[in-house]
Write a structure and sequence with these properties.
Elements: H1 3-13, E1 32-37, H2 43-52, E2 65-67, E3 73-78, H3 83-88, E4 94-98, H4 99-105, E5 110-114, E6 120-127, E7 142-145, H5 148-158, E8 163-166, E9 182-187, H6 191-195, E10 198-207, E11 209-213, H7 219-238, E12 241-249, H8 253-259, E13 267-270, E14 276-284, H9 288-297, E15 301-307
Parallel strand pairs: 1-3, 1-4, 7-8, 7-9
Antiparallel strand pairs: 2-3, 4-11, 5-11, 6-9, 6-10, 12-14, 12-15, 13-14
The chain binds adenosine-5'-triphosphate and magnesium ion.
Magnesium ion binds near residues 79, 80 and 81.
Length: about 325
């Protein structure tokens, strides 16, 4: 697209940005522009993921747009509502946003990778003293939500007709003030529902932060996207993992390897003390104590558990 046209589209979509974005910033080659939430629940975790993937973003005096120092990426900070559209029309090449926003906005983008943070679900809830009888319960009822698109599609699938009242916030108080019979909203722990006397009756979708991509990126940008995804995979796989070293008598190696299966082939090193070997393995942090107890029971000694910095695959 012509630079001038691109610039006009951008400013129509995001008028508040017009004063902040220098002209040359829309002209980028061999550089992947990623849209991130400017502030809010996903902002910090998105930057942390990039940082752990070795992509340093200068956050001092943060601007609308900032370039990474050591990777061909620049960050465009936006409200999360605007990210799917920005990526769909190619103003950003990729974005990190909740799957719920992607589904709600329904713009054409590719969901490239689940990033395993910002986990929540979108659920229907009704006052807890009312008996729920299944989706047909909502026939002819009023439901308050900030996610009318997802909800309309779900009810269309179920063949239920109801009145959807779109409101921007404080959805959970709608039943108590007589605005709606039920609500459709984001739930994570469920505490807000309980506080408002509501019971969750249907989970319509599960969500987490996802990497989305513009359709039809050129080969150069796809190459950067693939590198980024592979780094994200490494970061996500190393989370919650520990590196374990354990000395076992040679005649117990087979049993030990059943307790701590290796990712590929086990790393097995002979010790100076004949008759003993060291096994190295990557294990889930949650399983450390359980595995250590099982290994000790078969005669293993000197179990060493270390933090794991990276698991590059
Ligand atoms: P913005 O100002 O960018 O529009 P927002 O207020 O719409 O932000 P946030 O509250 O920051 O959005 O939430 C961003 C995303 O975090 C949600 O769309 C959802 O994907 C995810 N999320 C995870 N847990 C929760 C939760 N308990 N409440 C709200 N959002 C959650
Ligand atoms: Mg928003």
């Amino acid at each position: 697209m012509e630079l001038a046209v691109l610039r006009q589209v951008f400013f129509v979509l995001f008028p508040e940005a017009s004063a902040k974005l220098p002209e040359e910033d829309l002209n980028r080659n061999n550089m992947l522009r990623i849209a991130l939430q400017s502030k809010g629940r996903l902002n910090e975790k998105s930057l942390e993921l990039l940082r752990e993937a070795g992509i340093g973003i200068d956050e001092t005096g943060r601007k609308l747009l900032s370039k990474a120092a050591n990777f061909p990426v620049e960050i465009l900070y936006l409200r999360d509502d605007d990210i799917p559209q920005t990526v769909s029309c190619g103003i950003a090449d990729a974005g990190i946003v909740g799957l719920n926003e992607v589904m709600e906005r329904n713009f054409e983008v590719d969901v490239l990778q689940h990033l395993e943070f910002g986990k929540c679900r979108l659920s229907l809830a009704i006052p807890k003293y009312i008996e729920y009888t299944g989706p047909g319960f909502f026939e002819g009822k009023k439901i308050a939500t900030s996610y009318p698109g997802i909800l309309k599609r779900w009810f269309a699938e179920k063949g239920v007709n109801c009145e959807i009242r779109e409101i921007a916030g404080s959805v959970e108080i709608s039943p108590s003030i007589g605005l709606a019979d039920g609500i459709f909203d984001i739930v994570s722990s469920g505490g807000t529902l309980v506080q408002n006397g509501l019971a969750e009756v249907e989970t319509v979708m599960e969500s987490d932060a996802v990497l989305i991509g513009c359709r039809g990126l050129d080969e150069e940008k796809m190459r950067i996207v693939r590198t980024l995804m592979s780094r994200f995979t490494s970061v996500l796989r190393s989370r919650g993992k520990k590196y374990m070293l354990v000395n076992v008598p040679n005649d117990r190696i087979d049993e030990a390897l059943k307790i701590i299966p290796s990712m590929k082939s086990p790393t097995l090193l002979p010790l100076a003390d004949k008759g003993w070997s060291a096994i190295h393995a990557v294990i889930d942090e949650a399983e450390v104590w359980d595995k250590a107890d099982q290994l000790k029971a078969i005669g293993a000694e000197d179990i060493l558990v270390l933090s794991m910095e990276k698991l590059i695959i």
